[in-house]
Design brief:
This protein starts with a strand and ends with a strand. By secondary structure, the chain is α/β, with parallel strands linked by helices. A hairpin with a 4-residue loop joins strand 4 and strand 5. The longest helix is centred in the first third of the chain and has 20 residues. It folds into two domains: 131 residues, Enolase-like, N-terminal domain (Enolase-like, domain 1, 2-Layer Sandwich), CATH 3.30.390.10; 218 residues, TIM Barrel (Alpha-Beta Barrel), CATH 3.20.20. The strands form four sheets. The protein has a five-stranded parallel β-sheet. A four-stranded antiparallel β-sheet has the order 5-4-1-15. It binds (2R,3R,4R)-N,2,3,4,5-pentakis(oxidanyl)pentanamide (0YR) and magnesium ion. The site of magnesium ion has 5 residues, from loops.
Length: 370
Amino acid sequence: MKITSVKAFILHVPVTGSQIADSTHSISHWGVVGAQIDTDNGLTGYGFTGTHAHLPGDQLIARCIETCHAPLLIGEDASDITRLWQKLARNPALQWIGRAGITTLSHAAIDVALWDLKAKAAQQPLWKLLGGQAREKVRAYNTDIGWLSISDDKLVEGAQRAVAQGFTGIKIKVGSTVERDLRRLAAVRKAVGPDVTVAIDGNGKWDLATCKRFCNAAQAHDVFWFEEPLWHDDVTGHAQLAATTAIPVALGEQLYTTDAFAEFFAQQAIDWVQPDVTRMAGLTDVLRVCDTAHSFRLPVAPHAGDMSQVHVHLSYAHPACEVLEYIPWIKDCFTEPAEVVDGYFARPALPGAGTTPTAAAWAQYRQPVA
Ligand code: 0YR
Ligand code: MG
């Protein structure tokens, strides 16, 4: 299965209700920046990273795919995933200019496309190649009802609607003011009752003092986890918070490398592990984080199920993966959308990683690569 061509693509897909906000970002579209890899046996693999649909930035990622990574891949056997991962991640020219960021995001798209190809060649859904089914069902939790841009009333309505649809978990955004976010958390907990898991996500906005004050009061509402309470790279701060609150600390969606995760493990600064195949250098590296988490007996909640598609396969196959996020913005762009039925992600059945775009998405959302 020799690689004959590597091309980039960009899709910009509208979010639910045309605009959403968390503590740090306000966005109207999600960016799908991908790699399309053709092989001499007639198969095509697709993989992508995720962005906030900033076109000049997306074009830099696309250019990195086509001009930095692609030349190292042409003529190679696409099924040599580990060796090719190493070849790209340890490319001396690129490591000099970026061991994280665009070089990694573009590598993510390529690595996932290679896994997609491998599963398509085996004519199996990816989860089977990853060792088969480790769990009966993958529980979904709904984040799309919990944006900071949603009014207090609508937030409660949305939480109740999600529970009525079968979700047993939700996540609400925090990181505005301690008072407002506590009020919203209390209202949501009251509305959904004690049996639904309620997580909160700060997206790295607050400082340690604010987090401590918030956690003190939030503890009474049975918080499933506090995600990204502090700045993404602040290992010491997370360790201090984890040591002082009963609320579990979750993070990982903005960590690029296994080294970054290793720091959080070493300092006991993390309770829930949230790697993302669209952020790290693909599934190959995320699997290493999942295995390490598992060896420390830490649960994994891969960031965003439908937004990566691959996380559904990973969650079915890896014993560390406990729950998976539901944000349905881009799922309908793919030939086998990651669907949630009665609160659980449906098990994928088609060969591949679930990353093949539909012709309709291609026609509707495509942006110029350069
Ligand atoms: C908006 N999930 C998240 C959205 C979401 C972000 O920036 O991408 O809130 O990915 O934190 O857990
Ligand atoms: Mg998050």
